[in-house]
């Protein structure tokens, strides 16, 4: 990984486009693969009206719908399609991507049907390509506009994480590194569940105090689930975890928060932008049950989204749990 560096981005949505721009601005040759020709043409022109409306950006991303052209002789692949599509996208790379090329997983989620973390799926499908994750508080619109942003790049191989973080960093994107891949992945995946919950609290008009309590106790659940997976507590107190909770549990810019708001206001939930927390809440609740983890907020979000309980019933349930010490 020295000299001229080519980065391939898979996914032409908001985050794929923003990360491609960040990589371009960090001085790399950037190829972006999107499955539809309209997105390819728009990104080549310097816009992505469907996913980043109103943002004009510099030309220079080599966008294509030809997957082989996108990954040919590449140094690194950023996978930026929704979490539930990861398995099919990676399967499409089998036998085509050169071994050893790192796969940087940029989606935030847990596989709904299996409960597997995204890096586990990557290792299962492409065992010869080291898996890394990029996560943290970072709205695509902010990154695309070149606003200062900090994220964390994680891999089990500390040297790989550090090398990627150095490569990816630029004047407006600062990348920290971590060898706690599990912690970074879980922080990114689970914050979406709490962002939906925080949005629902806001949408239902339950007040700022309730919102602060929800986020704080959500963080306790995040740490409990993290501990069960072997994640380090300090990772979850970092950018992917606490940092991303702070961002997405307080801003209507977050699609998960906005989804929760719509839920709290009893608005129509059909045809909304991607909210990864919808899929993650169900599987996270199942994991909590299977591992006997105390995760009442995660379970409440899953039950509300399943239509099993109302927001009012969830609030009553959470408020009437047996009293206990805060640290328990
Ligand atoms: N947006 C953000 O601010 C951030 C997003 N993320 C994470 O990044 C991931 C992607 O989000 P984001 O880019 O915002 O989502 P968008 O909805 O903006 O875009 C999704 C992209 O994935 C493509 N896609 C969907 N399914 C497939 C598939 N089966 N094969 C190939 N391409 C597919 C879509 O293509 P098509 O248009 O053809 O459907 C589209 O280009 C999510 O996990 C999200 O949590 C992380 C940090 C910030
Ligand atoms: O993960 C994000 C910011 O860090 C984006 O959040 P949303 O997917 O909720 O918009």
From TrEMBL:
<feature type="domain" description="Glycerol-3-phosphate dehydrogenase NAD-dependent C-terminal">
    <location>
        <begin position="180"/>
        <end position="315"/>
    </location>
</feature>
<comment type="pathway">
    <text>Membrane lipid metabolism; glycerophospholipid metabolism.</text>
</comment>
<dbReference type="InterPro" id="IPR008927">
    <property type="entry name" value="6-PGluconate_DH-like_C_sf"/>
</dbReference>
<dbReference type="Pfam" id="PF07479">
    <property type="entry name" value="NAD_Gly3P_dh_C"/>
</dbReference>
<feature type="binding site">
    <location>
        <position position="138"/>
    </location>
    <ligand>
        <name>sn-glycerol 3-phosphate</name>
    </ligand>
</feature>
<dbReference type="InterPro" id="IPR013328">
    <property type="entry name" value="6PGD_dom2"/>
</dbReference>
<keyword id="KW-0521">NADP</keyword>
<dbReference type="InterPro" id="IPR036291">
    <property type="entry name" value="NAD(P)-bd_dom_sf"/>
</dbReference>
<protein>
    <recommendedName>
        <fullName>Glycerol-3-phosphate dehydrogenase [NAD(P)+]</fullName>
        <ecNumber>1.1.1.94</ecNumber>
    </recommendedName>
</protein>
<keyword id="KW-1208">Phospholipid metabolism</keyword>
<feature type="binding site">
    <location>
        <position position="108"/>
    </location>
    <ligand>
        <name>substrate</name>
    </ligand>
</feature>
<dbReference type="GO" id="GO:0008654">
    <property type="term" value="P:phospholipid biosynthetic process"/>
</dbReference>
<keyword id="KW-0547">Nucleotide-binding</keyword>
<feature type="binding site">
    <location>
        <position position="35"/>
    </location>
    <ligand>
        <name>NADPH</name>
    </ligand>
</feature>
<dbReference type="GO" id="GO:0046168">
    <property type="term" value="P:glycerol-3-phosphate catabolic process"/>
</dbReference>
<keyword id="KW-0560">Oxidoreductase</keyword>
<feature type="binding site">
    <location>
        <position position="244"/>
    </location>
    <ligand>
        <name>sn-glycerol 3-phosphate</name>
    </ligand>
</feature>
<dbReference type="Pfam" id="PF01210">
    <property type="entry name" value="NAD_Gly3P_dh_N"/>
</dbReference>
<feature type="binding site">
    <location>
        <position position="254"/>
    </location>
    <ligand>
        <name>sn-glycerol 3-phosphate</name>
    </ligand>
</feature>
<dbReference type="GO" id="GO:0051287">
    <property type="term" value="F:NAD binding"/>
</dbReference>
<feature type="binding site">
    <location>
        <begin position="255"/>
        <end position="256"/>
    </location>
    <ligand>
        <name>substrate</name>
    </ligand>
</feature>
<keyword id="KW-0444">Lipid biosynthesis</keyword>
<keyword id="KW-0520">NAD</keyword>
<feature type="binding site">
    <location>
        <begin position="11"/>
        <end position="16"/>
    </location>
    <ligand>
        <name>NAD(+)</name>
    </ligand>
</feature>
<dbReference type="GO" id="GO:0046167">
    <property type="term" value="P:glycerol-3-phosphate biosynthetic process"/>
</dbReference>
<keyword id="KW-0963">Cytoplasm</keyword>
<feature type="binding site">
    <location>
        <position position="274"/>
    </location>
    <ligand>
        <name>NADPH</name>
    </ligand>
</feature>
<feature type="binding site">
    <location>
        <position position="255"/>
    </location>
    <ligand>
        <name>sn-glycerol 3-phosphate</name>
    </ligand>
</feature>
<feature type="binding site">
    <location>
        <position position="276"/>
    </location>
    <ligand>
        <name>NADPH</name>
    </ligand>
</feature>
<dbReference type="GO" id="GO:0047952">
    <property type="term" value="F:glycerol-3-phosphate dehydrogenase [NAD(P)+] activity"/>
</dbReference>
<feature type="domain" description="Glycerol-3-phosphate dehydrogenase NAD-dependent N-terminal">
    <location>
        <begin position="7"/>
        <end position="160"/>
    </location>
</feature>
<feature type="binding site">
    <location>
        <position position="15"/>
    </location>
    <ligand>
        <name>NADPH</name>
    </ligand>
</feature>
<feature type="active site" description="Proton acceptor">
    <location>
        <position position="191"/>
    </location>
</feature>
<feature type="binding site">
    <location>
        <position position="191"/>
    </location>
    <ligand>
        <name>sn-glycerol 3-phosphate</name>
    </ligand>
</feature>
<feature type="binding site">
    <location>
        <position position="108"/>
    </location>
    <ligand>
        <name>NADPH</name>
    </ligand>
</feature>
<comment type="function">
    <text>Catalyzes the reduction of the glycolytic intermediate dihydroxyacetone phosphate (DHAP) to sn-glycerol 3-phosphate (G3P), the key precursor for phospholipid synthesis.</text>
</comment>
<dbReference type="InterPro" id="IPR006168">
    <property type="entry name" value="G3P_DH_NAD-dep"/>
</dbReference>
<keyword id="KW-0594">Phospholipid biosynthesis</keyword>
<feature type="binding site">
    <location>
        <position position="136"/>
    </location>
    <ligand>
        <name>sn-glycerol 3-phosphate</name>
    </ligand>
</feature>
<feature type="binding site">
    <location>
        <position position="51"/>
    </location>
    <ligand>
        <name>NADPH</name>
    </ligand>
</feature>
<dbReference type="GO" id="GO:0006650">
    <property type="term" value="P:glycerophospholipid metabolic process"/>
</dbReference>
<feature type="binding site">
    <location>
        <position position="140"/>
    </location>
    <ligand>
        <name>NADPH</name>
    </ligand>
</feature>
